[in-house]
Amino acid sequence: MTSATPSNPWRYPTLLDAPDAIRLVVLLPAIDKRVEIECILCNSRLRNNPDYEALSYVWGDPHITKQIILSDKKFHVTTNLEAALRRLRYSSKPRLLWIDALCIDQGNVSERISQVRQMGAIYRSAREVAVWLGPESNTSLRAFETLDAIVAILREKSWESLPFDHNAPDWLGEDYHDRRKADRQMWIYCSFFEDRKWELGMEAIEKLLRRPWWQRVWVIQEIALAQEATLYCGRHSANWNAFDEFLQMVSKTTSAKQSFHAKSTMTENWLEKIHNRLSGLLPGLMMSNIRHWRNQVHEDSSPEPELIEILNLCRGTMCSDPRDRVYGVLDIFPGTKSNHPLALPDYTISVTKLYSTVTVEKLLRDRTLDTLFMIAPNRLEFLENQSTGSICRDYFLPSWTPDWGVPGHPSIQEAKSRAEGDNEISPKYCAALDRLSPIPYELSLSGLVLAIYGVEVDIVSEASPSRCKSRSFEAIDDWKIMADASNDIMYFGGKSRAEAFWLTITRSVEANSKNLFEPEESTRNSPPATAKSTEHERPGEARDTRRRFPPESAADERHVKAWLALGPYHMTRKTFFRTQRGYLGTSTYMGPSYPDISAGDKVVVLLGGKVPVILRCDGTCYKLISLR
Questions:
Q1: How far apart are CA 123 and CA 222, in angstroms?
Q2: Distance of alpha carbon 608 from alpha carbon 439, whole angstroms
Q3: CA dist., res. 588 & res. 175, Å (int)
């Protein structure tokens, strides 16, 4: 939104003297598609309810442009915008549009700021949002055809009658046909990602959903606020509802991975294949979920999320100005703007000031350190720069401030639970005894140092050589050796060191573990299946539907490892460590600007913190190294 526009020695007509004043552009018709694009600018006001469409698109390279005619004068736009205009132009009637690059004088900073502040109202008031994904490719047609076919299956609910007995894989178990319809529905969903007949079509959809438009921060609110939306790709188009139904199916498939895993022992290759497939769809999935959440808030007055929750959900989205990661989501929920001191976009303040102010405002108000848990991104392994292993930024942030430019897609369910005041999703720990800090936090005059009282409880004596860089099971074996994880060696609290090890790396999620490792009620009293040798089970090893935690056998251990690779507690980007007093722990990778944990780092309990943190002395203050 704040990208530099192509150089245009063009004088804009003055906006109307009204707070809701906007410009609209009339796209003139042409029978011959090769004719140059011609538009006319006109003034309007939102209160007059003009019947227009708002364009949502990616600017593209501002240095590569094409000429159009704007109000009888030459005007240069990016090639992507010119292609969008050519696609949207009617042959026999004009089309009224709002397009940021044409309707806002991008060279006028004060006008740009005033129009950005109206962005939510502009997209909310539009009759429809026209989304331009870009020119078609050699897979676009297949993508739209596959999307239509999948949506038709979803709407017909054909899984209720289709027998899948001949295609059901071994890991589903012999009781597959007796499972409730919900499980059969989940298997149909997974088949879209697994069945060869869908392979080329799914790959085409993935390519479509990996286009730059899906990665941009501004498009999230443009879709969230849209009354209706149509997505265009070259000659092809589809209503947003079709994409939304597909993406919601993806959301259920993500849950299905864990549902099926509760009753099986999947191979790591299967998990990796499904997970990699889903990872490319995460930006679209997040966009779909936020739109649903906003509609739910509007319909039944559900609690609205705080700004910092929205920022965490949208982290890693692309924009030319890092400040737009805050300003680009302000309008998604009605109360966000009115309830926050940074409600109005201001491009005169620095990124450091903006990000740290958003963070410290919540820290000082809540007097808890829950916000710090938003620093460590989820699923960073899929979005990090693969060639360098790092993400570059040209702004400085204190170690206690989240960088919403670092990618990651936390669960929207977690955000909704926190917005509703439900702490069940959070670890049930209280290391500092009181949930709230009895002593208020203080901010230094520089705004970069946060003063928090705490107690040093231990010092790191040994850490694993490097972070676990994949979902590999082998890292856990290395950690077991480092931990001396034996049933014959006792740990604190009367547990064996082996039990302490497994509780540590699963973050003591005992309740969840039992749900995952115990069989369903329908199979609990059934005898074990006949011994059968498969790629998932060793020869001669009887198949046991009952799993134990902590693991008591090699089969149990393989099951826990697979669950760790799949679930929210997986070991990717974590480091295992021991302390001088003999405790075991794991630390979370905080992002590219944070160093790895090492011997000598301090384990500290800070007031208002649920779990200890890892700090490192940095001159006169400490730097946050890791959480959890």
A1: 6
A2: 9
A3: 39
Beta strands in 46-85 (DSSP E): 53-56, 65-70, 73-78
Q: Give the Cα separation of 90 and 92 in Å (integer).
A: 6
**Which residue, 103, 126, 149, sits at the end of a domain?**
126
Which residues constitute the domain of residue 111? 21-126
Could you tell me if residue 21 is left (phi over 0), alpha (psi between -120 and 50 degrees) or otherwise beta?
beta
For 521, the token pair is 């009620």
Amino acid at 184: R
Cα 333 to the chain's mean position, in Å? 18
> Which pLDDT value is given to residue 211?
94
Helix ranges restricted to H, 49-118 = 79-88, 100-103, 109-116
C-alpha dihedral, 81 to 83 to 87 to 88, nearest 10°? 20
Please state, in angstroms and rounded to a whole number, the distance separating the CA atoms of residues 550 and 326: 43
How far is the C-alpha of 482 from the C-alpha of 500, rounded, in Å?
13
Query: pLDDT (tens digit, 9 = 90+) per residue, 137-163?
Result: 999 999 999 999 889 888 876 555 555
Residues 117 and 196 in one domain: no
Cα–Cα distance measured from residue 363 to residue 476, given in angstroms and rounded to the nearest whole number: 35
516: exposed, middle or buried (Cβ count in 10 Å: 0-12, 13-18, 19+): buried
505, with CB counted inside 10 A (0-12, 13-18, 19+), is buried
**Tens of pLDDT, residues 65-88:** 999 999 999 999 999 999 999 999
CB 130 within 8 A of CB 97: yes
Q: Do 184 and 263 sit in the same domain of this protein?
A: yes
Rounded CA gap, 571 and 468, in Å?
7
CA separation, residue 610 to residues 125, 261, 508 (Å):
44, 30, 14
CA–CA dist 547, 212 (Å, integer): 44
**Last residue of one domain, picked from the residues 555, 570, 585:** 570
What does the block give as tokens for 186?
């989940």
One domain, residues 37 and 120: yes
Encode pLDDT of 411-436 as tens digits: 555 655 555 555 444 456 677 777 78
Nearest to 500 by CA among 508, 509, 512: 508
Beta strand segments in 315-398, E: none
- DSSP annotation string for 285-314: HHHHHHHHHHHHHHHH-PPPPPHHHHHHHT
State how far the Cα of 453 lies from the Cα of 444, in Å rounded to an integer. 14
User: In the structure encoding, which two tokens stand for residue 18, read together?
Assistant: 């009204």
CB atoms within 10 A of CB 16: 13
Q: Is the pTM of this model over 0.90?
A: no
| Helix (H) / strand (E) containing 518 | none
